[in-house]
C-alpha cells in the first residue's frame, strides 16, 4: 500500500498519515438488477483498489485530496451539503453527513488522500469502493464499531440519500464482505449472505472494461427502478407479492395477462428469470458443470439486452466478439449502459483472446478496452503506520 500516497500526504500536510486503508472493487457473476427488487445476486470483490492515507486534524474540517483528481475539497463538518463545487468530494462527504444525521458526534476533522487503480465509470463500482472506504475510515478514526455489513449499509444510505442514486445494496455488500477466492450469495430480501466456492476448472474469468464513460445518476438506471415499482403496484392487488422477487417463473403467464404494457412485462420477465438463473448457477457450480454456468451467463446477457434493455451497442459487441474468439460464456456485469463485462475463457487461450478482442473492438469503436483476469480478493483493509 502506497509510498506515493504517504509521500503526497506528507507533502500536503507536513506530517505523516496515521493509517492506510484500502477498498477493492467488485464484479457480479450473476443476478443483475435484482438487488433493488429484493432478489439474489452473486458478486465477488476483485483486486483493483482505492487506497487512502488518513490522519486527524485539530480543527473540524474534512480535507479530501485524490491523486486521480485535479482539485482538493475542504468542508467543515458543521456545514456539509451536496453541492456542485464539491464535485467528486460529494461521495466521501455523504458518509460524514450520514453519520451526523444518525446522531454521531464527530469531534475532529480528517485529512484524507485517495489513490485509485479502479477504472472510473467502468461498472466495477469505483463509487461504492470510495463510499465503503470512507465509511470504513470514519468507523476506525471515530471509533464507531461497525461490522462489514453495517459499513455496507452506511455507504448505501449515503449513496441513496446524499448522492441520489436509487441503487440496491449489491456493490456495497460485495466490497465490504469480500473474501479471497469466494463469491458472495446475497439475498437482498433480508441482506443475508453465504460464501460460495465457485470453480471454473481450467477456465479463467476475464474482466473486459468497455471504457465507455457513463454516469448512473443520469442514466436510465433510476427509470428501471421506477418501472419495477410500477410492475409491483400493478401485480400486488392480484398476486400476493411485496417485490418482483416473490414471483416464480411459473407466474409469468399470469403476469403477462395482468400487465398490459409490454415494456413493463419484459422488465418483470428479466427479474424473475434472472433470480432463477442465480439459483441455477449455484447448482451448476456445485456440480462442477462449467458449460452450464457459461450458458447461464449468456442467457443473462440476452435477457439484459432484450428484456431489460441496459446493455447498449458496446457491451453487445463485446458479447458477440468474445464468443467468436473463444469465450464459452460472457455477460455484462454491473448496471450496464457501458461499463464492463465478464467472460469465461480457457486459461491457455486468455492472451490470444485478449489480443483479438482488443483489436476488433478498437477497430470498430476506436477505443482500447481493458482486459484482465479477475483475482477474487478480501474486502476492506486497514494498516497502522
Ligand atoms: C449498479 C448498482 C447496483 C445494482 C447493479 C445492477 O451497480 O449500484 O445496486 O443494481 O447496478 O445489478
Overview of this protein structure:
The structure is a single chain. With 385 residues, the chain is of the alpha+beta class. Helix 2 packs across helix 3 and helix 3 packs across helix 5. The model has no long low-confidence stretch (mean pLDDT 96). The strands form 3 sheets. The protein has a 6-stranded mixed beta sheet, with helices on both faces. Strands 10-11-9-12 form a 4-stranded antiparallel beta sheet. It has helices at residues 3-13, 90-101, 126-141, 148-162, 170-177, 221-235, 252-258, 262-286, 290-306, 312-324, 350-365, and strands spanning 19-28, 40-41, 43-56, 61-66, 73-76, 110-116, 183-187, 192-196, 203-209, 329-333, 340-346, 370-373, 381-384. The structure holds alpha-D-galactopyranose. Alpha-D-galactopyranose is lined by residues 28, 32-33, 35-36, 125, 167-168, 170-171, 334-335.
Topology:
Elements: H1 3-13, E1 19-28, E2 40-41, E3 43-56, E4 61-66, E5 73-76, H2 90-101, E6 110-116, H3 126-141, H4 148-162, H5 170-177, E7 183-187, E8 192-196, E9 203-209, H6 221-235, H7 252-258, H8 262-286, H9 290-306, H10 312-324, E10 329-333, E11 340-346, H11 350-365, E12 370-373, E13 381-384
Parallel strand pairs: 4-6
Antiparallel strand pairs: 1-3, 1-13, 2-7, 3-6, 4-5, 7-8, 9-11, 9-12, 10-11
Helix pairs in contact: 2-3, 2-4, 3-4, 3-5, 4-5, 6-8, 8-9, 10-11
Residues 28, 32-33, 35-36, 125, 167-168, 170-171, 334-335 line the site of alpha-D-galactopyranose.
